[in-house]
Amino acid sequence: MPPARGLAHLKRSDPVLAALIAAVGPLPNARDGRPHPDDHYGALVRSITGQQLSVRAASAIYARLLARFEDRPPTPAEILADEPEELRAAAGLSRAKVSFLRSLAEHVISGDLQLELLDALPDEAVIAELVAVKGLGLWTAQMFLMFHLGRPDVLPTGDLGIRRAMERAYGLSELPSPPQMEALAEPWRPHRTLACRYLWRSLANEPG
User: Fold this and answer.
1) Is the pLDDT score of 35 beyond 60?
2) Of 208, 104, 74, 73, which is closest to residue 146 (Cα–Cα)?
3) Which of 162, 130, 163 is nearest to 145 (CA)?
4) Residue 66: how many CB atoms within 10 A of its CB?
């Protein structure tokens, strides 16, 4: 269940969002019913495998990847030791995603990405660390912040679902621009993540 304080703040600060929250009803717990690794590295591996795929397709490919490594996320060393074409074929990954997984593994092994430090960093610093890895873009970094680190005040202005939900809820004539989104979401601070979950839910397309 979402935090009562955050929910009360959103209802109080924005009547449009309050009406949307009432229409959507209670949110399920984030990630209910979907396997997600608890560790930072495993979460990023899953994010890469699921990029630009439906929830169902992403889950299937992730399951095939786990099956190759005794039903667990592969370690960085295992990714780099695996033959790229064999990994691609076994898991159903694209060549690009195999290269992204290898880039992530290389950054972790080299120490360029120190995952154990991410919890203590502010949001923008976490994003900067992650986007230095090939294949980890801004959207993926923001999803990591929201759903893995549980950061409460993230607004992914590039997310099409959020833009569509805002367009519908606020009766806009077209998809809002990032500055428009920032302006509409300003009253939601510091609970923009929770607001986004309601916006996604209003379209039944919360990220997997």
Assistant:
1) no
2) 208
3) 130
4) 20
pLDDT tops 60 at residue 97: yes
In the numeric block, the tokens 């955050």 are attached to 6
Q: In the chain, what are the domains? A: 4-30+153-202 (1.10.1670.40), 40-148 (1.10.340.30)
**Dihedral (CA of 188, 193, 194, 195) sign:** positive
Question: Which of 63, 105, 98 has its CA nearest to residue 55?
Answer: 63
- The arithmetic mean of pLDDT across residues 139-168, rounded, is 96
How many Cα atoms are found within 13 Å in the side-chain-facing hemisphere of 122?
A: 1
Neighbours of 196 (CB within 10 A): 24
Instruction: Give the largest Cα separation in the chain, rounded.
Output: 55
CA 1 to chain centre: 19
Place of tokens 């924005």: 14
The token pair that represents 153 in the structure block: 């005040």
Query: What's the N-to-C CA distance of the chain in angstroms?
Result: 17
Distances, alpha carbon 114 to alpha carbons 49, 73, 100, 102, in Å:
21, 18, 17, 16
**Gyration radius of the chain's alpha carbons:** 18
Q: What's the whole-model pTM score?
A: 0.90
- Looking at residue 176, the DSSP 8-state letter turns out to be P
- Rounded CA gap, 33 and 72, in Å? 17
In whole angstroms, what is the distance from residue 126 CA to residue 162 CA? 22
Contact yes or no for 43/37 (Cβ under 8 A): yes
